[in-house]
Design a protein that fits this description.
The protein is an alpha+beta fold. Helices cover 22% and strands 33% of the residues.
């Protein structure tokens, strides 16, 4: 999840590496008969004391067992390090992408260079959204293809928001550096990725 209005975003204790280890160590999903290769996006609120509330599926793939497992993983998480704004801890909505894929699909999925923390920083540093008059508080989901050489193509809005939000989300993705491509059996492959970007009017957290 990306958030431009906070000084620091909410984070799993220990960062991305510990979060990935947590998901791997607590994984109990049983693969269905149909081939699955997509992300489930789980939204939740990280409260100022680090507890997690308001867990729900923000964007799914139609697989009920995936939904149940994604929600279970988030519900069992330890307290997070909360977001901070102007030195004060604040509540923050977070969207976590969890990859569900049948064992035959891929070994490693595409990733922004440096991981989610660097992706958060990229969004913050390149943010140019001009807020509309109406209050905005929601996610835009941008879909794109990460090619074998790391380039990004086929950018489109998978789930949109306001017109200026959609325009800014596409601009941010279009300007990104090359990603680290997905791999299967040690060979780089193309992979579709969907990125959630939060657009929130500055007045909301005042």
């Amino acid at each position: 999840m990306e958030l431009a209005t906070a000084d620091t975003v909410a984070e799993f204790p220990g960062g991305d590496q510990k979060l990935n280890s947590y998901i791997k160590d607590n994984w109990k999903w049983t693969e269905p008969a149909d081939t699955i290769n997509s992300f489930i996006y789980v939204s939740f609120m990280v409260r100022r004391e680090g507890t997690i509330t308001d867990i729900k599926i923000a964007k799914g793939n139609g697989c009920k067992s995936c939904y149940a497992e994604a929600v279970r993983l988030v519900r069992l998480m330890p307290k997070w390090i909360p977001a901070r704004k102007k030195g004060v801890t604040v509540d923050q909505m977070h969207v976590l992408p969890i990859l569900f894929q049948s064992s035959a699909i891929a070994d490693r999925f595409a990733e922004f260079p440096g991981g989610r923390h660097k992706l958060d920083r990229y969004i913050k540093d390149h943010w140019k959204w001009i807020e509309p008059a109406d209050t905005i508080d929601g996610f835009v989901f941008v879909s794109f293809r990460v090619r074998k050489d790391g380039t990004i193509t086929d950018i489109e809005i998978a789930k949109g928001g306001c017109e200026s939000c959609n325009t800014e989300a596409i601009r941010l993705v279009r300007l990104m550096p090359k990603w680290i491509p997905a791999q299967k059996n040690g060979v780089t492959i193309d992979q579709t990725y969907t990125l959630p970007i939060l657009f929130e009017s500055s007045a909301i957290n005042k």
